[in-house]
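Quick one: structure tokens for this chain, please?
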Amino acid sequence: MSKNKRILLKIGSNTLTKETDNISRGKIEDIANQIAKLKDSCEFIIVSSGAIAVAKQFVKLESLQSEVFVKQALASIGQPHLIRIYQEIFREYGLLSSQCLLSYSDFEKDESKTNITNTINVLVNNNYIPIINENDTVATDEIKFGDNDKLAALTASLLDVDLLIIATNTNGIYTKASIKNGTPETIKEVTDFDYLTSEVVNSKSSHGSGGMQSKIEAAKVAKKANIETWIVNGLQDNFILDAFENNINFTKIN
């Protein structure tokens, strides 16, 4: 790996909770440990879901409002707790972190895009790891669609990263036939999106709002910016390091 390879790591709620009802501090420790080992050769930007999952651990809101407004309120409660957990654990590994809340509308305005780029570049250049989430209190796109997959791809494109890693709960994308047979087989490398789309069996995760289709849509956005996407099983320990060493099955989309 070359010096200062810029990586955008997207972590979904299902990965952060390790498919339970609670945020896993152990999983965040695993991520911090890997970033610490790679910090001399890579710079990381993280897009992290999990604010709603954190809030659900200790609060139940009563409301006659529609479910999406309740989820926005939960996100408002959970977001500061999520960042606090990241900051506490990252600090133990000698890593500095910061919070950035973005909305899809920010990517539609040139001034906003310039501000995002400049701010994140200052953070990264000063060894801070930006932890990005959608500003769910004012925007509902992430809650409704895609569990931050699209946000990660747009951010990756804007910041001209070298690699987009989407951590999920499968060993990449499986062939449709192998799923039907009950013996999931990973599609290891993809250049043809039509083939990929035809193979996808879309199912949403227990905590996240995305599914494999949203990850493919994210990879399409990244591909337009000439960014390679890896879809990796984030539930496994050392998933980033193992992917770099090709020690695990995952999907590369280029």
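The longest strand covers residues 5-11.
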